[in-house]
Structure formats: structure tokens, C-alpha cells
From TrEMBL:
NCBIfam families reported in the protein's UniProt record: GAPDH-I
NAD keyword on record: yes
Residues noted as binding NAD(+) in the record, renumbered to the chain: R75, I76, D96, S183, N378
Organism annotation: Oncorhynchus tshawytscha (Chinook salmon)
Catalytic center residues: C214
Family: Belongs to the glyceraldehyde-3-phosphate dehydrogenase family.
Alphabetized GO MF terms: glyceraldehyde-3-phosphate dehydrogenase (NAD+) (phosphorylating) activity; NAD binding; NADP binding
Protein name per Swiss-Prot or TrEMBL: Glyceraldehyde-3-phosphate dehydrogenase
EC number: 1.2.1.12
Location within or outside the cell: Cytoplasm
UniProt key word Plastid: no
Residue ranges of the TM segments: none
Pathway the protein acts in: Carbohydrate degradation; glycolysis; pyruvate from D-glyceraldehyde 3-phosphate: step 1/5
Amino acid sequence: MQGQSCVLSKTVLSSTLLQHSSFTWACKLWRGVVRSMIYCSLEDTTDPKPIQFTTTTHSTATMSDLCVGINGFGRIGRLVLRACLQKGIKVVAINDPFIDLQYMVYMFKYDSTHGRYKGEVSMEDGKLIVDDHSISVFQCMKPHEIPWGKAGADYVVESTGVFLSIDKASSHIQGGAKRVVVSAPSPDAPMFVMGVNEDKYDPSSMTIVSNASCTTNCLAPLAKVIHDNFGIEEALMTTVHAYTATQKTVDGPSAKAWRDGRGAHQNIIPASTGAAKAVGKVIPELNGKLTGMAFRVPVADVSVVDLTCRLSRPGSYAEIKAAVKKAAEGPMKGYLGYTEDSVVSSDFIGDTHSSIFDAGAGISLNDNFVKLISWYDNEFGYSHRVADLLLYMHSKE
């Protein structure tokens, strides 16, 4: 078994899991149920011209002094590593008890959705080598056992989808990390959406924070622009969402939500989501005014938000488009995009924006009741926001 420290034999691991609270996590991971919680740019696409994409090429950015560890090397963990390399963030360690080093090399090199990593990926002396970056690899079951401090990781991205609460995520601090960013909604950690409320981050009191979900990252920038300019009286959101690793390839058991167990490639599946309500946490004025649902559909990546809202102040659809475009070119540049092209979902694979407003897809019943459409790469766009939040937090040290 490859990797450094905390490496357990299969016999010892099995024995330990039976006695340990991480057994539930292990079972889910073995079944592929919690491989990643993939829930959603710095290129401007504000003009009505073909959208410009940030591609997943090898790192050319100048490295910052920010050193990061990643816990969980599933969809989100691997794409966060790509995003960090592009943005000059030094990833010094990765922990995943279920992926050995040789398999890590393979999984990072090849991606069915985002393509092969353009740089060099190999292993040497028990470490993952990406281009000229050497990354320590650990296989610890318990977060407090991961030697983040020894590896030099000041910040940790918690991307297992398991250790979501402040209490559970704080275990990383015991291993030597100074701060933790949870790459999923948290039940109690402060939640941030870049371009919307990152200015509320307080380094003196916030050690564990959440980057919310990819859908909240898509919805919140659009909702903020509309609310700031026209006021949102009330709204309903629907996200037409790509399937994720938590779903089934064919019909299987799902005791909690029966429909979730149906074949992801065969069905449009109604599902619940807390993404709309979470907007009330990042934009308090919208608390209680917004809720929503999801449809899981048979596409591998890229989702779209439908925001239907009743406005407090009348505004024509042309005025709404102008307000969104102004924000996309100004204070939300890189987070909110704008297009008037006749686009479809696959056009946004690899787009690093949180949200791309589709000016041609929305409709207006009257000046107070509108339906607005915004796209997002629920994997890659979200991973770039995790990296951006890390950089923002580090800048406040």
C-alpha cells in the first residue's frame, strides 16, 4: 500500500472500522455513495460573443506562499487540485484512506469529463508528483491523525462530504492545520459565496468555514444582482442538475429517498435541495423568501438554475439583462458571466464562473414577474471557488 503514515493493512483497517465511528464513512465510500459531494473563472464572458473558457491545462501560475492539504480525492478533491495548480496555490498533502498512490496518479491524470491533465503526473518516494510539485500522500481514516502540520499544510480542504460540521471538521486542527474549508454545505459553519458575502469573513473568529454548494454558488450572485436592483419579494428556484457520484447507474436501494435510487442515466429524477434556502444565509435579506427543488438529469456535467421571482420594484427584461451584464463586467467579474449566444449545457464544460446568465433563455410575464436562467459547471466552476476562497482567506491573515 502506497502513501505515508497512517497506512493500515486491510486486516487492521477492517478491525478498526468495526470499532470506530468512521465505519459509516468507510461503507459509503466502498459502495461509491460518498465518493464526492460535487455541489458548483476568472475569464470575463460579459460581451455577447462566444464564451471564453479557462481550460484544464498544466500550471503556469506563480506559486503563492499558501500551503494547502486536501482530504478526500474524489471528484471535488481532484478538481480542486487542478484549480489550485492553475491559481498558484501550493498543495502539499492529500489524504484518502481508500486510494493508494499508484491509483491517485491514474485518477488525477485521466478524467472522462474534463480530459487528461496536460502536465506530467507520476509518483516518487511515496509522493504524488504533478509537474514539478511534490505532494505528500496519507491514508488516515480519522482526520485528527492526518499530519497536516508536519506536511506544512496550513489550510485544509475537507472534500469527503462527511466531516461537515464544525465539530467534525475541527479534527483537522488537531493534525496541525490552522483553517478548514468545507467543500459542501455545513449545518453550522459560516457559509461563503465568492462575489456575494466573502467580506463577512472574520479571521479572528472563523476557523472552519463552508464554501456552500455549487448550486448556491450559481444562484446567490444572480439573486444578489436582482435583489439589489429590483428587490425580490419571493422566489422559487429549480436546478436542472447533472447526475453525481452519489446516484445509481442502474436501479438500486435508496431507503432515505426512493427516487434517488433509480438509474441516473435513464431518468429525470425530482430531488430535494437546500441550495435556495442557503441563499438566505449568505444574503440575510432573502431569508425566508426563497426555496427550491432539483431535477437530476442524464448528463455528466453542467447544470442550470431557473430562478422565477416576483419583483418588489418593476423592471423590464431589458433592464434586468443590463443590470446583470453590468455586474458581470464589474464587481462580480470572474464569478458571474453573461452570454446572449444560443448555448447548450456542453458549451459550459470547463467554464470557471460560478454562474453564467443566459440572456436569451429567460422570459418575463410582466415587469414584476420573471424567469431567469443561469448555467454552471457544477464541478469545475465550484472547484475554482474553493480555490478562490482559500486565497481570499489567506489574504486576510
